[in-house]
Description:
The protein is an alpha+beta fold. 16% of the residues lie in helices and 28% in strands. Strand 11 and strand 12 form a beta hairpin.
Amino acid sequence: MTHVTKIFIFPIKSLDGVVVNQAKVLPSGALQYDREFAIVDQQGRFVNGKRNAKVHLLRSLFSLKARTVSLQVQDTTAQQLFHLDEEPEQLEAWLSEFFGFDVTLKQNTVMGFPDDTDSPGPTVIRTGTIAEIASWFPRVTAEEMRRRLRANIEIDEVTPFWEDQLFTEEIGDIVPFRVGEVQFHGVNPCQRCVVPTRDSLTGEAYPNFQKTFISKRQETLPAHAAASRFNHFYRLSVNTRIPASEAGKILKIGDEIKFSVVEI
């Protein structure tokens, strides 16, 4: 049997995540509080790791219950606490000073700000996959790779790339599966960006990361993976959708994953 071992919520897009024991499904299929906020510049563009490596230097500690975030710059001691709902202007001012240009904090309680708005469900990856990817890069630990990949749901056992069975050869098809009481639709392998190539705490680029990743990913692609979905091999973890019928249900640590496809 396969179970959920970790659930991560990222309250502010691109900042540090929060480990939770359970998460509520929204009508959109997103998880409540995940990417609920996003930092944007005056042109309305996301201020994220794709566009600004300085994001990696921000340490954030969230209290979902208290609705607060404590911000700290890497390798400094000063911390500043903000209430996400009551002090947005103060938070925006602090972030603007940090980045060196004016930013605002946008909020979307319906779907958050996922990279894939067509598939806003939680991303899924296996513990063994994270460990395998980390092994390709000397001096990169599994925990560091976990921070770089930023998946929402991690599933147990060590066999890498097991999640690659959660999509099919045909674009538009879905693979139905359940996590506890929640129905999921697996959609496609997630296209990665520049973020995994950098140290999650410093922003320092790892030499030839993407080239090595692509080569090793192609070499280790499992037989059960739909190879035609890899127009390139810089893809990892699985994007999902959750039907609106599942709104209000709770995902929990320990939930069993049941598939309507043959388990590998």
